[in-house]
Design a protein that fits this description.
The chain has four helices and six strands; from the N terminus they run βββαβββααα. The chain has a four-stranded antiparallel β-sheet, covered by helices on one side. A two-stranded antiparallel sheet has the order 4-5. By secondary structure, it is α+β, with helices and mostly antiparallel strands.
Length: 109
């Protein structure tokens, strides 16, 4: 089942919409989402080069120009925020719950 999820930050001008597949745990960041203009370059965040590569051809002027599929919520969150981000906590459902809260193992849907 695909569920709409959101990642927003007024401070960093982030407004992303995605779908979370509750079966495969994959996340598709939707075209039109706004991502951070900054990609953190630090020893703590080793995924910076990966985010840069993923954004090539997918992001123009901080806007996602085509749907982008990720194998995990955290990889999708890193893509959106440009920093190391726990996607299970950062992505929220329409009710404001994290996907970890809403779709943790064993929780009834």
């Amino acid at each position: 089942m695909n569920v709409k999820i959101y990642l927003k930050s007024k401070k960093n001008d982030i407004d992303a919409i995605a779908t979370f597949n509750t079966d495969t745990k994959e996340v598709t960041v939707k075209k039109g989402s706004r991502v951070s203009g900054h990609i953190g370059q630090s020893e703590k965040f080793r995924g910076a080069a990966s985010v840069e590569k993923q954004r090539e051809g997918s992001v123009k002027d901080k806007t996602v120009i085509k749907d982008v599929l990720f194998k995990s919520p955290s990889t999708a969150a890193n893509f959106v925020t440009g920093t190391s981000t726990n996607g299970w906590v950062a992505w929220k459902t329409e009710k404001g719950e994290s996907i970890k809260q809403a779709y943790s193992e064993g929780k009834n849907e």
